[in-house]
Amino acid sequence: MEPRNSALVVEDLKVHFGGGRGLFATKPTVHAVDGVSFTVPAGQTFGIVGESGSGKTTTALAIMRLVDVTAGRVTLGDTVISDLDKEDLRAARRQFQIVFQDPYSSLDPRKRAAEIVREPLDLMQIGTRAERDARVTELFGQVGLRPEQRALFPHQFSGGQRQRLGLARALSTKPDLIVCDEPVSALDVAIQAQILNLMARLQQELGLTYLFISHDLGVVQHICDEIAVMYLGQIVEQADRVTLFTNPQHPYTKALLAAVPMVHSNKRNRRDRIRLKGDPPSPVDLPNGCRFASRCPLAESRCHEQTPELREISPGHRAACLLL
Question: Of 3.30.70.270, 3.40.50.300, 3.90.1150.10, 3.40.50.2000, which CATH number belongs to 8-319?
Answer without folding.
Answer: 3.40.50.300
